[in-house]
Amino acid sequence: MSKVRKPDDFAAFWDDVERQASAIALEPEVVPDPLRTSDDVETFQVFYTSLEHIRIAAWYCRPVRRAERTPAIMLLPGYQMDPPIPKEWARKGYIALSVAPRGKLRSNRQFNPGYPNLLTHNIVDRHTYAYRGFYVDTWRGIDFLLSRPEVEPTRIGVTGSSQGGGLTITTAAMRRQVRAAAAGAPYLCGFMDAVGLTHTYPYEEINDYMRLHPESRHDVETTVAYFDGINFADRIACPIIVNIGLQDNVCPPETGYTLFERIGARDKQLYPYDGHGHDAGRYRHGAIVDRFFARHLLDRDGTA
Amino acid sequence: MDPTDGAVREYWQDTLDDLARYPARPEIDMLPLRSTPFATLYGARLTSLGPYRLFGYLSIPTGTGPFPAIYYPPKYQSVLEIIPQGTANLQRSRYITFSLAGRGQRNADTPFAAMFPGLLTEGIDTAASYVFRGIVADAIRGLAFLLTRRELDAARVVLVGNDVALITAALTPGATHVVATPALFYKTAELAAKTPTYPLEEINDYVRLYPTRAEAVRRTLAYYDLRGFAPRVTAATLLMAGAPGTLLDARALEPLVTAMKSPVTIHESEQSTYKDGLYAEKWMAARCGITDVQNILPEHWRD
Predict the structure, then answer these.
(1) Nearest CB to A249 within list B86, B204, B243
(2) Which of A137, A162, A193, A296 is an active site residue?
(3) Closest-CA residue in chain A for B199?
């Protein structure tokens, strides 16, 4: 039985955050990166401004040969991974944006709580919790894509695994322009369930924090309820697929099931992989993700 | 022209000699936030070649010991983990663990902050300036530091990591076992040409932009090829190969296995972090005399 409960003022809280963010100009900057550009893929370093005027970095790849308006995918990073250069998505025919939310390498000049630490940075206060800005950084990635003349605005997808899976959930929930979403092994979903189900990092950061600050448990629980992907899930309307590993030692599969149940979209499908851990069956599932986006963004049936 | 075996030996001996000029001068501070009833965590600062100040997380189990140890030398990522993501925190109740940030990684990123991708070609034009000369020295310094701990059982020291782990075990004594996942320095120039995937794509990017430097890159990488280090590894080794058909599968690694003089077990990836991880955990536990491995596995991996 999940402990996740949505706060009564959940919508009001995020409306307020969005209002603050919307007052800040995106100020996008797109800088060619000749070192990472090849014959088939143009690569750029992108920068834009987010909540608290923090400058966010991203990799931006586009196929050299493309339509005037090309479908786009936003790729979201895992908790401790360095955001990859998404050339492979460009080679599949998409314009691809790989975002480094605040604190990640290249976006850590103004905000750098470190790893471990991000997960519990100001965790007793929802108004300053690390993920408040971190979430907005990813949502503004969609805003950046919508600002680009070469992007087809009605064909934008979002994907990622682990933290990238959790951010896929929150982004699909908060940006109606997302046409399709694929979330793997979603992290940041069922925080307080997860810390009882597993004792591995990164969730273990919360157990560490509560062991040292037992008096803060209520405040921690209150804060994370505003950031729990499960509480965003009912807002998702686009087609979505979710894959989980039944032996996932990082993001317990129990939280994946709860998340999936709460997703509001009618067109949703869960892929549970037995015999798989935090990879969540990525090797087998990759082709399913490719077909899913080809169908929704490229109008291909994906069987080729 | 590739460097001779003698030139490679001299390069690494010079590296060890240069490292020896700088004492480690460790500073160790307890970190209460990450300490538990079963293990105490410390932050450790050490000096390496350069001189360059490094940072590592040292975890010591509660009890009298001596304990087996797992050493995690610098990984190819910006983040320094206490123990690898997904490892049960209870691993720290049985093993001393020490994870080290090499120069450029978080907590050791002043004055040099590494980029990922980017680190693999940093200074690659000459072997003397290549950043990995320093990173290997860092890894060696970390192992030497770990071996000074009185709680440690020197007969059970496992080195776990990528190519840097294997190179470290070849260049310095102390590791009794190695779990290595080659990714960076096995036939690098040759294999990079066959993949568009990072990190090896960094080599392709670099050579594409600077074609006149291709030969220099190849020459530098020759100093780091795992095949050259293999005969010097004396620790029993578990090689984690890619899945069949991938760039670094068991078949591709055969020349490396053949060159190794120590006992080698090769595990071909089953494309499952659960199955591969479980295999490695059990392999280490069996060699370290840990009979209740089930108790220190992640909850979702237990029988």
Answers:
(1) B86
(2) A162
(3) A84
Cβ pair B301:A34 closer than 8 A? no
Please check whether residue B102 lies inside any domain of the structure.
Answer: yes
Question: Which pTM does this prediction carry?
Answer: 0.97
Given A84, A198, A209, which is nearest B299 (Cβ)? A198
Give the residue numbers spanning the domain of B28. 5-178+186-228
pLDDT digits (tens, 9 = 90+) for B221-270: 999 999 999 999 999 999 999 999 999 999 999 999 999 999 999 999 99
Q: In this structure, is residue B283 part of a structural domain?
A: no
Delineate the domains of chain A, giving CATH numbers in brackets. 10-297 (3.40.50.1820)
Instruction: Tell me whether residue B246 is in a domain.
Output: no
- ipTM score of the complex? 0.96
- Residue A197 with chain B: CB contacts under 8 Å: 299
Q: Is residue B111 included in any domain, yes or no?
A: yes
A276 carries an active-site annotation: yes
CATH number at residue B144: 3.40.50.1820
Q: How far is CA B104 from CA A264, B22, B84, B114, B220, in A?
A: 44, 19, 19, 4, 20
The total number of structural domains that make up chain B = 1
CA distance B117 to chain A (A): 8
Among A residues 2-61, those touching chain B with beta carbons less than 8 Å apart: 34-36, 38
Element spanning A161, H or E:
strand A151-161
The residue from A98, A121, A193, A276 that is catalytic is A276
